Amino acid sequence: MIQKLKGTYDVYGDLAKKHDYVKKLFQAVCESYNYSYIETPLIERSELFHRGVGETTDIVTKETYDFLDRGNRENTIRPEGTAGIARAIIEDKLYNTLPLKLWYIGSMFRYERPQKGRYRELRQMGVEFYGSNDPISDAEVISLGINFLKELGLKDVKVKINSIGGTETRIKYKDALIKHFKSDIDNFCDDCKERLTKNPLRILDCKIDSDKELIKNAPSILDYLNDDEVKHFEKVKEYLDTLEIEYEVDDSLVRGLDYYTNTVFEYVTKSNEFGSIGGGGRYNNLLKSLDGPDVPAVGFAFGLDRIVSELENSEIKLNLNDELDCYILTITEKENDYALELAQKLRMCGFKIDLDLSGKNMKNKFKEADRYKAKQIIIIGEDEVINDEVTIRDNITKEETKVTIDNIIDYFDVNL
Ligand code: AMP
Q1: Which atom of ligand 1 is nearest to the CA of 266?
Q2: Which ligand 1 atom minimizes the distance to the CA of 267?
Q3: Closest Cα to residue 300, out of 323, 325, 276, 282?
Q4: How confident is the model at residue 256 (pLDDT cuts 50, 70, 90)?
Q5: Which atom of ligand 1 lies nearest, measured to the CA of 278?
């Protein structure tokens, strides 16, 4: 038997309904903020991620699915959505009409060690807001995410927020971190040893060394921000206060991707079982670094898989709307033609209808109606066909009513 790859899973049945529910709600919330949908390819040139996400990030050094295609070109299956969208904005000159508010959803692939809440095929949904460096756009993007989580019913969520400044601030801060960690780096994990010279900010969110005193009393990036960066951060927080969004400043939050500038944030649940359920920030240098124009941007991505797990853990009942309006069953095969025609007519009127086509016995037909959560059952026998009048059973009260064929739609309009 051929088995699925490690870190992947199949989506069907109730899980598929939950995924669908979450996706549709995300779409609705994005549309209510006037975002439009964008879909970019699953595969891109490897260089895009090396330059866009960052050569020294964990994603690029250890996690990308890279392959040579038959023309010997280096390609990568996307590990995240932002870089591909940035490429599309440059290539298709979408920056000619700003601001640009885009939302996306889809699978991403990262060669990580699979564990609970961490997959190799992960599904992300996110937004990208290009064309404004005003802190109000940071706040709007953050609020979109919070509103979505609230509408899902996830109440125990908050935003962790930090500012990591611009390039110059980060150069100064990196120097300070190198000085701080240098003397004791031998006691850190191998990854951190490498990070010290390549990307010392990442030492701050190392999962292995997080309890070390040296990490706890590391210099704070907030002390290195210049006046404009401080002002920007203060304004973002002010707007979050206006919107009554609960946030916590966490100066160790640096995020794993190189393209961030100024604001970074993560959505966490208070139980925090899987780490963050989403994260994002501002990336004013991303387009420029990919040879595009100088256009500021802010955005985030949610992990769909983690959000669905979180909903299950919190025992939140989703209104999955998975009932059938009506299940049609026939007493003998002779009534099948009549049933088919009736099903056709009701479906064309927008009702969700199924009918038994398998020739099961009556008991099993009723069981099937229950399995599909049918609200009403239409029973058609010989007499019903002759008289053009069917028996409709309310599947909750079990009451039966005779209804003429021409009155079924009116009956459903009142009783469904
Ligand atoms: P990132 O793109 O790394 O900033 O991650 C954004 C969100 O995607 C995280 O908050 C998670 O919810 C989700 N995520 C990231 N990596 C994984 C993974 N390997 N498996 C499942 N979800 C993930």
Answers
A1: 10
A2: 10
A3: 282
A4: low
A5: 10
CA 255 – CA 264 distance, rounded (Å):
7
> In whole angstroms, what is the distance from residue 215 CA to residue 333 CA?
75
Mean pLDDT of 284-306: 96
Around 25, how many Cα atoms within 13 Å sit in the side-chain half-sphere?
24
Q: Determine the distance separating the centroid of ligand 1 and the alpha carbon of 288, expressed in angstroms.
A: 25
Residue 359 C-alpha to ligand 1 middle, in angstroms?
47
| Amino acid letter for position 56 | T
Asked whether 124 lines ligand 1 (CB < 6 A), one says yes
Domain end, chosen from 313, 346, 378, is at 313
202 lines ligand 1 (CB under 6 A): no
Same domain, 351 and 302: no
Q: Are residues 282 and 389 in the same domain?
A: no
> Is the CB–ligand 1 distance for residue 353 below 6 Å?
no
Q: Would the CB of 299 count as within 6 Å of ligand 1?
A: no
E strand intervals along 131-231:
157-163
Q: Which of 255, 284, 313 is the last residue of a domain?
A: 313
| Residues 119-141: tens digit of each pLDDT | 999 999 999 999 999 999 999 99
Average pLDDT, the chain: 93
What's the pLDDT at 96? 97
One domain for residues 302 and 377: no
Span 271-285, pLDDT tens digits: 777 779 999 999 999
Note the pTM of the prediction, 2 decimals: 0.92
pLDDT at residue 98, rounded to an integer: 97
37 CA from centroid of ligand 1 (Å): 20
Residues 277 and 347 in one domain: no
Does ligand 1 lie within 6 Å of residue 21's CB atom?
Answer: no
Task: Evaluate whether 185 touches 193 at the Cβ level (below 8 Å).
Answer: yes
11-25, 132-146, 348-362: least confident range: 348-362
Q: What is the pLDDT of residue 35?
A: 98
pLDDT single digits (tens) 175-188:
999 999 998 898 88
Site to probe by mutation for ligand 1, drawn from 107, 122, 164 as the one with most ligand atoms within 8 Å of Cβ, is 122
Range of the domain at 47: 13-165+225-313
pLDDT at 357 over 80: no
Residue 36's CB: how many other CB atoms inside 10 A? 10
Answer whether residue 71 shows pLDDT above 90: yes
Residues 366 and 390 grouped into a single domain: yes
- Helix and strand numbers (H, E) in the chain are 15, 16
Shared domain for 233 and 369, answered yes or no, is: no
Residue 218 within any structural domain of the chain: no
- How long is the chain? 416
